[in-house]
Amino acid sequence: MSASDKKVISEIEFEVSQIEQLLATYADLLKRAQERSPDTVEIAAIASVLHSFYNGIEKIFLSVAKAMDASIPLGERSHRELLIQMTKKTTRRRAVISEKTSQTLIAYLAFRHFYRHSYSFVIDWEELKKLAVPLNPNWSQIKSDLLGFVENLKSEVRNQQ
Question: What burial class does residue 151 get, using C-beta atoms within 10 Å of its C-beta: 0-12 exposed, 13-18 middle, 19+ buried?
Fold first, then answer.
């Protein structure tokens, strides 16, 4: 296993653990939001969680792109292009995530963009709810793809020995 592969594995495992900690930290808030409409402060907190959630996932994608693809998209559509890049197999690696997972993540990416360029008091709960309520099941699928990618990397090394 190359040093860059080890680094990618380590970074993916670290970011997965950070996202797990993020979701555990705010689990009560996310649960309450499913039971009743949150107030403005809670909406801002949930929005921050979703922002951090996608940031962690994008850190993983950047790690893979730097270490294994030697190609990071640039320009105004770079975040979307990076997401699409992770669905593609290359000569060096298999796809990191499935097309289905990519479609799920597009909504979180779009929200992150909105969040970065707006005031938190304008966030509409009915729209935010579409991402917050299914966050845990969506994370399960995303995490499954990411850990499957890690296991595939590890098994390739075992097969080469």
Answer: exposed
